Amino acid sequence: MNNKSVNHNTDNQAFPQFTENAAEETPVFQETTLEGMKTSPAVHHRPSGLRQTEVTNNGVRLTFGTTARKSVLSYTHETALHLYKPADALIDTVYLHIELWTDRVFRVIFSGKKEIDDPYSNLPKEARMLVATPEKVRFTFENNTIKTDQIDIHIDSESGRITAVTKSGKEFFSQLRTSFKAADIYDLALTKEGNDTACFEALTLDADEVIYGLGERFDSVVRNGRQTDFHNKDAVGTTSRRTYVNIPFYMSTKGYGLFLNSSAPTDWQIATTDLGALQFSVFDGQLDYFVIGGETPKEILRGYCGLTGFAKLPPLWSFGLWMSRNSYTSWAVVDQIAKEVREHDIPCDVLHLDTAWFTEDWNCDLKFSKERFPDPEKHIAQLKEQGFRVSLWQYNFIPPRENNENYHEALEHGYLAKDQNGGVYRYPKEHQGSWTDDVIIDFSNPDARRWYAEKIKGLMETGAAAIKTDFGEGIPEEAIYSNIEGKYFHNLYSLVYNSTVFGASKEPIVWARSGTAGSQRFPVHWGGDSQCSFDALAGTLRGALSIGMSGIPFFSHDIGGFIGVPDDELYIRWAQLGLFSSHSRCHGVGDHTHREPWYFSKEALEIFRFYDKLRYSLMPYIYEQAKICTRTGLPMMRALYLEFPQDRNVRFIDDEYLFGESLLIAPVLKPLSKSKVRDLYLPAGVWYDYFTGERIESVGQWVQKPVELKTLPIFVREGTTLKYCSADRSFSEGMGEIIRTETW
Question: Quick check: pTM over 0.85?
Answer without folding.
Answer: yes
